[in-house]
Amino acid sequence: MKDAFLALIAKHQGILHKLCRLYRDTSEDRQDLFQEIVYQLWKAFPQFRQEASITTWMYRVALNTALASFRKRVPTLRYTDTLPDTLSNYEATAEGQQEQLFGALKQLNDADKALISLFLEDMTYKEMALVLGISENNVGVRLNRIKSKLKLIVKKQNHES
Question: What class does CATH assign to 1-76?
Fold first, then answer.
């Protein structure tokens, strides 16, 4: 069982890291969340009944863990007198665009973050519906609304910079 679980984590760690990046800002917080997700997956692994695909099950556990631990966190605020050089010398590179996307995604509410993260993993509407417990039709409607929100957020970010 241990070997099967470790192989599962190794195969799908990319999706777990993307979720961690979406729900946490610092590298340390992402690592902590990743460890917590793996721990929760390990605890739940013996009860996995294979009624859904393994990735659907992993997403459900990972999202629930991220959301539950997010509610427990007390944010630490850091204030500085000046802007970091990276902000004042922003260049529209692929990395910059990726950071801009993650910045926009972080402005969404938790339910929208969960849905868009599944979409970005190329899950089908049916798989997304199973993970989130909503209808496939609702997935489509909500995705269209989220995409519109993201376009507005990115447009606003571009005008502010």
Answer: mainly alpha
Cα–Cα dist 28/33, whole Å: 9
Which are the contacts of 28, defined by CB distance < 8 A and separation ≥ 6? Answer: none
**92-161 CATH pick, 1.10.10.10, 3.60.10.10, 2.30.30.30, 3.30.565.10:** 1.10.10.10
Q: Judge contact between 73 and 24, C-beta under 8 A.
A: no
pLDDT digits (tens, 9 = 90+) for 70-108: 555 444 444 344 433 433 333 445 566 777 778 888 888
**Residue 15 vs residues 65, 66, 75, 122, 133: alpha-carbon distances, Å:** 14, 13, 24, 11, 19
